[in-house]
Amino acid sequence: MAQYQNSFGQFQLKRIPDTDKNLQAWNSADSYLLKELFEQMDSEALHKAGILILNDDFGALTVSLARFSCDSLSDSYVSQQAAVNNIQSSCPQFIKQVNFLNSTETLNKSYDLVLFKIPKSLAFLQYQMRNLLPYIHENTKIIGAIMAKNLHHSVIEILDNYFSSVQVSLAWKKARLIHLVPSVPATAAINSDIRPDISEFLLDDGSRIFGLSNVFSRNRLDIGARFFLQHFPEPSEIAAQSIIDLGCGNGILSLKAAQYFPDAQITAVDESYMAVESARMTLADNVDKLSRFEFICANSLQQFESEQADLIICNPPFHQNHTVGDAVAWEMFKQSKRVLKDRGELWIVGNRHLAYHLKLKKLFGNQFLVATNNKFVILKAINN
Ligand code: SAM
Q1: Which atom number of ligand 1 is nearest to the Cα of residue 225?
Q2: Which residues of the chain have pLDDT under 70?
Q3: Contact present, 272 and 214 (Cβ < 8 Å)
Q4: Which protein residue's CA is at the shortest distance from atom 20 of ligand 1?
Q5: What structural domains and CATH numbers belong to the chain?
C-alpha cells in the first residue's frame, strides 16, 4: 500500500493486482486533474456540485473527492473494486457518499462537474461523450486527463464533435488536461440519441458476435482467438461438464464451448461490464438454451469456489488500461489452478514471446504444447 499525496490530502492507494511494486495506483494525470480542480473550486463549491467521475483507474480521483459526494462510473469491475478498497483504507467514513455506476447503466441526473480519464478505446470515449450530453448543462465544468504520450489527434477529433470548445493544457509532469465547454443551447434535444453502441461481425459458420464499445476486438475476430478456435479442446479429449471462459470478451470462446459441449454448464467471466453484456448477447443470439450459461462480472475467479471446473479456457489480457504487462494473466492462471477440479485442464492462447509455458510449469508442474504458429501458442496444463 503506497501513500498518495495530492492537493486534497494524503491517501493510501493500492492497485489490483498489486504484484508489481514498480506500478503505482495513480499517475500524474490524476494529480494534475486534482491540482487544477483544487485551484478552480473551493470546498464549498465542491460540496454543492453534482460530481461525476468517469474511468477512474484505481480510485485516485474517487478516493480524493469522496468527501464531497460523487458518482463514479467505470466499465471496469477491477477499477471499482480498487476504489472501494482504497476508500476503506483511506477514508471509510465517506464510502456511502460514493455512488458507483457501471458502464452499461444510463445516467439519470444532471452534473455540474465532470472529471474523466480518457479511456484507451476511442469507441468507448465517443460513446461516453455522446451519452453524457443530456446530463450536463451549459455551465458544467468538464475536465479530462491523460498522459501526454497517449494523447493522439483522434481523441481531440472525437471531443470536437460534442463540445463547443476543446482546450488542451500545457503538459505538467508528462500529463495533459483537456477542458471542454458544453455547446449552447443546452443538450435536451440530444436525449433521443441515447443508445447503446453495439457492433457485430459474422463468423464463417454464420454466428453473429456482438461487442459493446469498450470490448476487446469488437469488430473482428481476434487473431489469437481465431487460432484457439482451430485447436479448441474437443469432447474426445476431455469430458467437461463444467467450463469457464475466463476473460470472455465478446463471448467467442464460450460459443465454441457451447457447440462442442452441448450438455456442459458454461460460465463466462470478465471484469468489463460491457464484455459480460456482449457475451450474453452473443450467446443469446446463437444458442437455444441460455439456462446452462452464467455471465459474471468479476476480478478473475476470485469469488469462485475451489475445485469446481473441469475446463477453463482463456485468452488472457496483455495490458491493463494503458499499461502492458502479464500481472493479470499470472493472477488468472493462479486462480484457475485453485478453481479447477483434480485433473481439470486450463487451456490458453498467448503470444509466443510472452513465455506463458514457464508460468504454467511453475504453477501446475506441467504444461503441454497443443499447437503453435509464427505468432501464438496454445498451451494446456493439468491440475493434479
Ligand atoms: N475471450 C475473448 C477473445 O478471445 O476474443 C477476449 C480476450 S481479451 C485478450 C482478454 C479479456 O480479459 C478482456 O475481455 C478483458 O476485459 C478481460 N480481463 C482483463 N482483466 C480481467 C480480470 N482481472 N478478470 C476478468 N477478466 C479480465
Answers
A1: 4
A2: 185-195
A3: yes
A4: 271
A5: 2-189 (3.40.50.150), 198-382 (3.40.50.150)
